[in-house]
Amino acid sequence: MPIAGLNLVPFISVENMMDLVLETGIDAFLVELAQYIEEDFRRWEHFDKTPRVASHSAEGVIELMPTSDGRLYGFKYVNGHPKNTRSGRQTVTAFGVLADVETGYPLLLSEMTILTALRTAAMSAVAARYLAPKNARTMALIGTGAQSEFQARAFRALLGIESLRLFDVDEPAMRRCRSNLADLGLSITLCTSPEEAVEGVEIITTATADKQNATILTDNMIGAGVHINAVGGDCPGKTELHRDILLRSSIFVEYPPQTRVEGEIQQLDPDHPVVELWRVICGKEAGRDRSDQITLFDSVGFAVEDFSALRYVNEKLKGSRHYTALDLLADPDEPRDLYGMLLRRQAWLRQASLA
Q1: Strand 53-56 and strand 324-327: pairing?
Q2: Options 234, 292, 333, 337, the catalytic residue
């Protein structure tokens, strides 16, 4: 990467990220990102793993999500504040850091609001490749907020979804989603209820934002053989599915200690059986093994996925111009003379004021 000086760290702004994604191509970016996620899930046992550090309030949550594979360290700062849209703000914002374990020096500082939307969608599609009915072509999308188009695009790019049925209590949001996806060749139907949206589909994605226990899907709405991609339930007290659906489903999760607190399975007994997705990807356990099986990916988002996204973007930056060299680290002439660096700056400022 063409950056000189130990003080300089590549910074990817929102504009940089958008340009990097568009230069790559949205579909190509999602496919490549999915490859990095799958690679890291195949070496899951190499990672430090801990539930994210969360600070909850009545209005939302602020979280830190760290992990390391022993060579690289990554973390993400992310919030979730559903009421933000009322003041023109995003529900979810994020930024992240990738660092070199050997020196502790950061290699990259990046926006992760857009990148998180992309990695969440890519993660959903990776899971669905192992869990959804073979050759599935139809999907219902319940909730057409900021994540919806990314989910639709990822499922189209990685699974070949052709038909999309949308439902949201906010009709303008449904129309926006349809308009944004209009040039992809998808057959898109706006529905008047969740029941109408899920009728006859093979995959159901739920991605609502309210910070509460909600019942977006009831048991009688779910037929045999469906794959459910539950994205919206992602913190304590926030769920989307009726408990009876869980009891009928084969449940797959990222990291059980986190999902049991934050995911749909917070509704179940602490020892209710679940399968870690990495074990399916590595061939240690079965994913979908019956045509009538209801599979549920209880997705809450885990730090390894953000690590994968940062690792991917760091590789994409090589030979790229889509970053700013940020003067982030102190770099004195003599590493132990940090105070002397301050004095030299003071002398320079005095001289500059006299010039």
Answers
A1: unpaired
A2: 234
